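Extended Data, panel c. Modelled sequence:
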Amino acid sequence: QVQLVESGEGLVQAGGSLRLSCAASGRSFSSYVMAWFRQAPGKEREFVAGISSSDGLTYYEDSVKGRFTISRDNAKNTVNLQMNGLKPEDTAVYYCAASRFIGSVDYKIVAAAPNYGYWGQGTQVTVSS
């Protein structure tokens, strides 16, 4: 069992930055693939970024590449999402997710929301124009 709690909610102007954090409780955090998803009003939940469990490989949705950075600290059981160059279209509720996978993973596996069994409650990010 893993419990996830996000923090870092905020309202920023376009071009600004925010840092989201996700604190995980439970055992064997380092064995979980961690990811961030987001959901804007009236839209489906979409993948933002993910990081593998073993080798720290990172995966990004195209619209956030070069602007967002995902990282993890296995000693502190946390995963972070540094968001720079924010745009109004980044406005959404951001969710942290965790899952264990058997074998290697790739972008397609990491980016699929149904593959995750553990979710945080979400944190609101609002970017004004």
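The chain is about 5% helix and 45% strand. This feature is highlighted in the accompanying rendering.
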